[in-house]
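Forwarding these from the shared drive since the link keeps breaking.
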Amino acid sequence: MCLGIPMQVVVIDGFNAVCEAQGVRRTVSLFMVRDDGIEVGDHVMVHVGYALRRMTEAEARSAWELFGSVIETPS
């Protein structure tokens, strides 16, 4: 299974950005969303180092809540 991780853009440098989620920072390519006008503070869905789409803060928060409930659920 592949998961996209919601992250917030912290710094932009051309087609790359430093993004953060849950205290973890990663360098992410913005190449695939280059026409979306991504700005510092925006939230993006990240998969294997690429931002796939912009998302709202509410969508990002909801995804993290869902991830949290899955992790807490005993198998």
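-- next protein --
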Amino acid sequence: MDPKWNEDQPIYRQLRDRVVAMILEGVLGDGDALPSVRNVAAEYRLNPLTVLKGYQELVDEGLVEKKRGRGMFVNDGARTQLLKAERERFLEKEWPQVIATIERLGLDPEELLKTNATDAGDEND
């Protein structure tokens, strides 16, 4: 996790978002333990209640479960659940803005795809 926090959003929310990113990227998988509240608080110099609040959001969303005396663990299917929600959010909120920008700039979508495919091939060299 990146120790830098921005001023635009509460730290507990940023912490929640970082754990979500770790799940989406496969860093944390089904059944994996989250770092302990105490360790995260100490490592990033946060109040343990701040860490707990971020983790509690994940519990409330059904992504993580709390096992008394053992810690917090990623629920089975959390990544699938997140991917579905992120895709829906992207298609509803971000994609229309991308399309509007493409149209406003007079870009050719097929050329953009070709450029992207060429760039992706360069990264594999």
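The longest strand covers residues 64-67. The chain has a mean pLDDT of 90.

- D.
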